[in-house]
DNA sequence: GTTGCAAATTTTGGATACAAAGGATACAGT
DNA sequence: ACTGTATCCTTTGTATCCAAAATTTGCAAC
């Protein structure tokens, strides 16, 4: 029979991933297999598979015989990801709106409500994804959804930094509320326009924020 | 210093990938590590990493403790991939057209010329990708390009089947020529409209073809 | 002091060996 | 005959060990 039985490479991958996203391993960090293995209480073998997994997700770059380096995202690449999101997410939303039920709308609203109360970066990032994913899921496009998720994953490290800036959060919340209303009203065109604009503007704010931070 | 030194997992991944795309391992096939290892003259370890790589590419599904299964693409998923391509490729083309040089236009044209003479499925698939990639590359959006490449990879198995059907090829070549002309003339809007239409229609033809084949 | 080379060290890549999980099979009980 | 269960076999998962590659260090020559 089936059993979930999370296998070590997956557990290890999850832990390393979270460390990268939390900023504990900034871009450029060299990850040593032995070190990770010892720290996570496994041998190097599962670590190697985890590293390959994370490399496939775009969080690492594997240099043969030289090790795994945490991927650095240039501002250009960051903007690129937002361009891709701006192309894909409105597509998902368009397909989803006709099938949106009370359940998803409620889930999205709950995420927004909590996001206004909470202040932890990791949690805010989770809620942000939950909001978006709830709206896209009814489209029933698994590949599209997981591609979008991967893009989110890749900007998440930087997202978390700006998610604690109050000005950004207020603007973002406002846009989210407007988007949700458009979805409720089944106004496909307006919703997808709002979403595209929301993504592009969030991208611009993030790039701006990172530029100033240096 | 640097050395290319293709590492075994990559070699192994490439070979398995080619077998999947060529139809030698159809969807649903269970891949046994030991068997692959023996056949490719390595131990199970590089095979495992290769399998993980291919799973990340979407060609396999890894079931913990139960093995790797070649991914089956339902017609719905196939259409989904074409929807994604129709969203992403016109974006890449728009960004690329202003920067298209003689080099890329020539490369694209060469690919079309050869595609009209050649009849081998694998080669045709290569040429088809070369044509598209040549037009997108000047956009200088590496993630966008590799995402598109991944989508191509995932439909390639089915593409190869229809690429030997003369009627499809003629239609496709015609559309490619029109697209190339629009690019030469720097008509961004027309070119991106042609491309989107080309992708959606190719997807429809493929779905139709596969439906009839059953 | 700087540059070039070579040995030594570190670190990754790959193979073998062992453990554990899943599935198949045979047997016992009803 | 059928069902449930225990055991065996196959296959995957993980650890350990050895080999190969890359980096670092030390030494020598200029």
From TrEMBL, chains A, B:
Entries under InterPro entries matching the protein: GntR_C (IPR011711), TF_FadR/GntR_C (IPR008920), Tscrpt_reg_HTH_GntR (IPR000524), WH-like_DNA-bd_sf (IPR036388), WH_DNA-bd_sf (IPR036390)
Keyword entries, A-Z: DNA-binding, Transcription, Transcription regulation
UniProt GO MF annotations: DNA binding; DNA-binding transcription factor activity
Statement: the UniProt record of this protein carries the keyword DNA-binding: yes
Keyword Transmembrane: no
Ranges for domain HTH gntR-type: 6-73
Record-given protein name: GntR family transcriptional regulator
């Amino acid at each position: 029979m089936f059993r979930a039985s999370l296998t070590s490479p997956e557990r290890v991958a999850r832990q390393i991933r979270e460390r990268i996203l939390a900023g504990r391993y900034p871009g450029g960090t060299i990850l040593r297999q032995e070190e990770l293995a010892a720290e996570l209480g496994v041998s190097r073998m599962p670590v190697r598979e985890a590293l390959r997994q994370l490399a496939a997700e775009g969080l690492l770059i594997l240099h043969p015989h030289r090790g795994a380096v945490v991927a650095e995202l240039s501002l250009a690449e960051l903007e690129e990801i937002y361009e891709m999101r701006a192309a894909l997410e409105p597509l998902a939303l368009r397909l989803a709106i006709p099938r949106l039920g009370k359940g998803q709308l409620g889930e999205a609203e709950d995420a927004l409500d909590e996001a206004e109360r909470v202040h932890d970066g990791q949690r805010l990032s989770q809620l942000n994804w939950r909001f978006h994913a709830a709206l896209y899921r009814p489209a029933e496009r698994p590949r599209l959804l997981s591609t979008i998720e991967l893009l989110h994953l890749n900007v998440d490290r930087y997202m978390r930094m700006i998610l604690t800036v109050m000005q950004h959060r207020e603007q973002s919340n406002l846009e989210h509320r407007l988007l949700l209303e458009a979805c409720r009203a089944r106004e496909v065109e307006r919703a997808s326009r709002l979403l595209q604009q929301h993504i592009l503007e969030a991208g611009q704010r993030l790039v701006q924020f990172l530029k100033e931070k240096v």
